[in-house]
Amino acid sequence: MVKRNPNMAKLQSGYLFPEIARRKKEFLARNPKAKIISLGIGDTTQPITPHITKGLHNEVSRLGTRKGYSGYGAEQGLEELRNKIAEKLYNGIIKGDEVFVSDGAKPDTARLQVLFGSNATIAVQDPSYPVYVDSSVILGQTGNYNQRKSQFDGIEYMECVPENNFFPDLKKTKKTDIIFFCNPNNPTGAAVNRRQLKEIVDFARRNKSILVYDSAYSQFITDKKLPKSIYEIEGSKEVAIEISSFSKPIGFTGVRLGWAVIPNELLFEDGTPVNKDWNRIATTLFNGASNIAQHGALNALDAKGMKEMRQTISYYLENAGIIRDSMEKLGYEVYGGRHAPYLWMRVPGKTSWEAFEEFLGKANVLTTPGVGFGPSGEGFLRLSALDHREDVKEAVERIERCMK
Ligand code: PLP
Fold first, then answer.
1. Does residue 245 line the site of ligand 1, with CB under 6 A?
2. Where does 6-48+305-402 sit in CATH, by number?
3. What are the structural domain ranges in the chain?
4. Which of 142, 167, 331, 389 has its CA 20 to 30 A from that of 135?
5. Which CATH code fits 51-302?
6. Which residues, given as ranges, of the chain have pLDDT below 50?
């Protein structure tokens, strides 16, 4: 028998969402007639819009012809798409050859961890998207799980709570090789301003760290004064990688498409360009994103596609407004939902899992326990607005009725 990778055994009770699915299944076994509405997992629900669908369709048809067929593509993505991402989503502040198209921001996070290796140290926002911590554990960058602190030894947790306006106290933050920073944030929905983002960049520069900036929700930023990309901040190109995704803005969670930006100026200590090694990783562990998905994205980035993208995002943000108004009416303290499809709600006097069970039991509404995103998420629930409007309305109506 082969010995199990000891790092796998360190992971805490699986990934958060399988645990939610397990509890949902248990609940349904006890209450088979219950009609559960999910404000839980952050998956999209709205159909892919017509012009973007047309881009996918046309490519499928092309592949079905002898003349139009193509096999493996460039591992870094279609040149036209790389250039279009740089031009349309970054206003040309980065170059197309710095964009590496991928099958999504989650697999890019895992491949980045392989790039950094098991000796790298990391810092994460607390709470944060669980994949940064779990991929770090799997790679062997951490010590054991510390039950008392609900943290992994060896990871630097940067507390982000209402009391500090969801922005970490960098004076208290230890130097690490890598800093994961997600903005707008999953799960809290908080979005930082330009001054705060500059503070993070300066902190990374002082510590000679690499900042991995996850902008999977940047298209949800509606306030023009707020930064969408890390590269809007002076000095960031020497320290920052940006990972991002088509999943949420155009409903590509199942189609799969994302990208990483690795600026030419970003170097390792020995002077090796980070994008040289990233290219090696991409050509070894990854064989390029689907050509069909990439043609959908090409359509998403022309004028018609961008208009459709904005409509999809507005729909979800209106959902967020409906949830926020209702929860505030019930007296809850609610954050986020303005520049992200997530609301972050304090549940006074209860643990996150107790509140999760209460919402499920009384209103048959599925939420996400905040503590699943890190110890500072204890006492909060995350509500997702990525649902059908009628489900959102029904969910809030049930909560208002059953939980007064
Ligand atoms: N990053 C964050 C912060 C996310 O919330 C998610 C998905 O929920 C991802 C990355 C994953 O994106 P993708 O679907 O492109 O893998």
1. yes
2. 3.90.1150.10
3. 6-48+305-402, 51-302
4. 167
5. 3.40.640.10
6. none
At 387 the pLDDT is 96
Q: Is 258 in the pocket of ligand 1 (CB under 6 A)?
A: yes
Q: Cα(301)–Cα(77) distance, rounded to whole angstroms?
A: 15
- CB-ligand 1 contact for 182 (6 Å cutoff): yes
> pLDDT at position 17, please?
82
In terms of Cβ atoms closer than 10 Å to its own Cβ (0-12, 13-18, 19+), residue 199 is middle
The overall pTM is greater than 0.90: yes
Which pLDDT tens digit goes with each residue over 320-347? 999 999 999 999 999 999 999 999 999 9
Residue 237: CB partners within 8 Å, gap ≥ 6? Answer: 94, 231, 263, 264, 265, 266
Atom of ligand 1 nearest to the CA of 257: 15
Å from CA of 111 to ligand 1 middle: 14
The single residue listed with the structure tokens 């200590």 is 269
pLDDT at residue number 14: 58
